[in-house]
Amino acid sequence: MDMLLGILLLLACVRASLIDRRPIVERFNPIRTSSNPTTPLQVGNGNFAFGSDITGLQTFLPFATMSSWGWKNDSLPPGKTVQDVENYRGVSWDNHGRLVQYDFNGGDPDIEQWLISNPNRVNLGRIGLAFHTRDGRNVNTTEDDLTDKHQELDLWSGTLTSAFAWEGERVTVTTIASQESDSVGIRVESSLLRSGQLNVFVDFPWNDGKAKFSAPFVGRWDVPANHTTELSIGRNLDEARAVIRHTMDASTFFTSLGGDAFEINRDSESMHRYTVKPLESASSFAVTVAFSPAGSTPLPSFRETHESASATWDEFWQSGGFVDVLTGSTDPRAVELQRRIILSRYLLRVNEAGDTPPQESGLVNNGWYGKFHMEMYFWHSAHWALWNDWELLRRSSDVYSRFLSSSIRRAQVQQNWDAGARWPKMTDPSGRSAPGQINNLLIWQQVHPIVFAEYEYRAFPTHDILKKWKNVVKETADWMASFAWFNESSGVYDIGPPMYVVSEDTSPNVTRNAAFELAYWDLGLELASGWLERLGEEAPGSWASVKEKLAALPMENGLYSVYEGIEGNFWDDPAFTNDHPALVGLHGWLPQTKNLDVKVAATTAEEVWSHWNISNCWGWDFPMLAMSAARNGQPDKAVEWLLHPSFQFDDAGMPIGGLLWQRGGVGMGVRTRQDFRKMDGM
Ligand SMILES: *[C@@H]1O[C@H](CO)[C@@H](O)[C@H](O)[C@H]1NC(C)=O
Ligand SMILES: *[C@@H]1O[C@H](CO)[C@@H](O)[C@H](O)[C@H]1NC(C)=O
Ligand SMILES: *[C@@H]1O[C@H](CO)[C@@H](O)[C@H](O)[C@H]1NC(C)=O
Ligand SMILES: *[C@@H]1O[C@H](CO)[C@@H](O)[C@H](O)[C@H]1NC(C)=O
Ligand SMILES: *[C@@H]1O[C@H](CO)[C@@H](O)[C@H](O)[C@H]1NC(C)=O
Ligand SMILES: *[C@@H]1O[C@H](CO)[C@@H](O)[C@H](O)[C@H]1NC(C)=O
User: Fold this and answer.
1) Pocket test for ligand 4, best of 73, 223, 272 (most atoms within 8 A of CB)
2) Where would one find the signal peptide in this protein (predicted)?
C-alpha cells in the first residue's frame, strides 16, 4: 500500500543513526520578506493552528485561528424547530428489491441545507499589532509602512520569528503554539513598547455556514451586531488576566490572556476588538492567548510554551521516520523532493494531527463548512502509521469506535441492511452524515478502518490491538458483505448500483462492479477474516461467500474499466477521464489483491498516463500515480509524478494553483482542487 514510502522509510531506518536530521530540516525553513496574500505561515499542534502574516500575527491579513473543537450551529431556518431537524428523512431508493433510505432529497429543503452546513467550523479570533502615535492616537498602518521585513519559520522548533522596522524602530515578534493547550505564545520586542506606540489587539469575527468554502480568510468582521463578546478581568493572576467570552447564536468560545501585566480595553461597544496595552515600561512584552470551548484553561507563560513546544518539535523530528534523499544524490530534483517532504511533515503535524480526522484544508481555512470527509481520512492520516507517529494517529483513529453505534444505526435501522456499520462520508465530530447524493452513495471510505487496524497490528502485533479493533473490523466487513448482492443470473456478488465511484463522476444508478471498489472489497474482506482468525474466531460465512464469488474486476480489451458495462470508448470520453484516476490505485495504493492481475493493472496504469486529463488531476492523485509507478517497477516515473508541473507547492509548502480557496490545502497528498460541477447536494 505504501511501496514508495515503504522503500524510502526502509532506507531511512537502515541509515537512521547516520542521518543528521536537523540541518536537513532547517535548510527548508520558510523565509519571507512580505506576506503572501493567500497562504499564511502557521504555528500549531494538530488540534489548533494559528496563521500569520508578515508580522508573525494577523495584523494586516486575518488568517485563521482554527481548532478541531471549534464548531457552531447557525440558528434554524425561520419557523423551523429542533423537532423538524430530528424529523428529517431522506429519500428511499430501491437496491435490488430492498428499500434503502438515504439522506438526500428529503422533505424540507431548508432543513436539508441546514443539516449540510451545520455545524460549521469557526475562526476563533484574530491577534495583531496596533500602532500608535506617541500621544496615543491610532495610526492606520499598512504592510507597506513596514521596512526591513524578514520572517523565518524555524521548523525544528516550531518557532516563527518576524522582524521589521516601523518609523525607524525595530520590532521582533516571536510566535509559538503550545503543544499542551490550544494557545499561542507571543513575545514582542521593541522600543516602541516603551514609548507606548505598539500594542496588541484581539478581535472576533462572526461565523456561519452561508459559504461552503471560506478562503483564504474565515469569518466576517462586518456584522458585529450579530454576535456578542464580553470581557472579564481575572482576579487570580496565576491564571488568566482577562477572559473574553464570544457568543455566536447558541455557541460560546473563550479566549484567555495571560503573561506580562497589561491593561485591556474594548475599542468600542459596538465592535469586538480589544486593545491590550503593556503596563510595564519595558522593551519586551510576552502574552499567551488561549482558546477553549470552556471557561478556564491553563495559561502557560511564553517561556514555558517556548520550551515545551521546542522540545515536542525536536522529539517529533528525531523520533519518527525520516527520509534523506539529498545525501549522496546528484539528481537535481532531490532538493525539491526533500523540501516537500520536510514542509509537508511540518504542515501535517500542525494541521492534520487532531482528535478528529482533518478537513481537506486542515486548519488553514474552510472547505465544505469545515467538515471532514471519511474517504479522505486514509490520504490525510494513514501516513502517520508509515512514519511511525502512532501517538498522533491515535488521537483520531478511535473515531471509528466513536462513530460505531451511529454507523450501525445508519446501516441497520435507517438503511435497512442486514448487518454491519455503514461509515459516513462528509461529517463532523458528531458523526452525523451530511445530506447529499455523493455523501450517501460513495463506498470507498468503508474499507479504510480495516486498513488502519492492519497497519496498527503490523506495528504492534498484540492481542490488545486485535481486541481494540475487533468490533470495528467486524461491523465494517459485515456491511461490506450485506451490500454485495448475489446476482442469480451471473452467479456472482455484485456491488451497486446504486453507488458512486472514487471519481464521483459516473451515474450512480448504472454504476455496478467498479474496479477499484471490487479490489478494495476483496482486500478488506481478506484482512477482516484474517483479523478474526488471529483472535481464534471464525469469520462469518457471508464474508467468505462474498469474497469467493465477488464479481471479477471489469475488463475490456485487456484493460481494467472503471465499472462493468461502461462505454467501451470511455478512455476517450472526457466525462470519465477527468477526475481521480482510481484505476492506477488498483496496484500501488492497494497491494496486490487476490482478484487482481498485476500485468493488466500495469498496462491499465499506462493507459491512464496517456488518456487521462492529467491537467485536471490534483492533490492526492499525484502521489497515487507515483505509488502505482513505483509498484509497477518504474521509480523514475514515480518521482516525475511527484514533481509534476500541476503539483507544485509554494514557499510555505502549500499547494499552488486552483481558485483562491483551494490554495489553502496543506501538504503533499492533500486534495486542493475540487470540481464545482459535481458539488451539488454536498
Ligand atoms: C448542532 O445541532 C445538532 C442538532 O440539533 C446537535 O446535535 C449538535 O450537538 C449541535 N452542535 C453544536 C456544535 O452546537
Ligand atoms: C436513480 O434511481 C432512483 C430510484 O431507484 C430514482 O428515483 C432516480 O431518479 C434515479 N436517478 C437517475 C438519474 O436516473
Ligand atoms: C486604513 O488604510 C487602508 C489603506 O489605505 C484603508 O483601506 C482603510 O480604510 C483605512 N482604515 C481606517 C480605519 O482608516
Ligand atoms: C445579522 O443579523 C440580521 C438581523 O437579525 C440579519 O438580518 C442578518 O442576515 C445577519 N447577518 C448575517 C451575516 O448573518
Ligand atoms: C446480473 O448480472 C448481469 C451481468 O453482470 C447484469 O447484466 C444484470 O443486470 C444483473 N442483474 C441485476 C438484476 O442487476
Ligand atoms: C482537462 O482539464 C482542464 C482543466 O485543467 C480543462 O480545462 C479541460 O477542458 C479538460 N479537457 C477535457 C478534454 O476535458
Assistant:
1) 223
2) 1-16
Ligand 6, closest atom to CA 646? Answer: 5
**Distances from the Cα of 126 to the Cα of 29, 122, 515, 530, 680, angstroms:** 24, 12, 47, 51, 32
Question: Where are any strands of DSSP class E within 420-536?
Answer: 426-427, 485-487, 492-494
Q: What is residue 391's three-state secondary structure?
A: helix
Note the pTM of the prediction, 2 decimals: 0.94
What residue's CA is closest to ligand 1, atom 2? 73
Q: Which helix (H) or strand (E) holds 324?
A: none
- C-beta 94 within 6 A of ligand 2: yes
d(CA 381, CA 393): 7
Q: How far is the CA of 607 from the centre of ligand 6 (A)?
A: 18
All structural domains of the chain: 42-72+119-317 (2.70.98), 90-117 (no CATH), 406-616 (1.50.10.10)
Question: Could you identify the residue written with the cell 469545515?
Answer: 370
Q: Which of 509, 678, 680 to mutate to test the pocket of ligand 2 (most atoms within 8 A of CB)?
A: 509
> 138 CA to middle of ligand 3, Å?
12
Name the band, by pLDDT with cuts 50, 70 and 90, for residue 18: confident
How many angstroms separate the Cα of 241 from the Cα of each of 264, 274, 299?
A: 9, 14, 10
Span 461-482, pLDDT tens digits: 999 999 999 999 999 999 999 9
Residue minimizing CA distance to atom 14 of ligand 3: 140
Tell me if 509 CB under 6 Å of ligand 2: yes
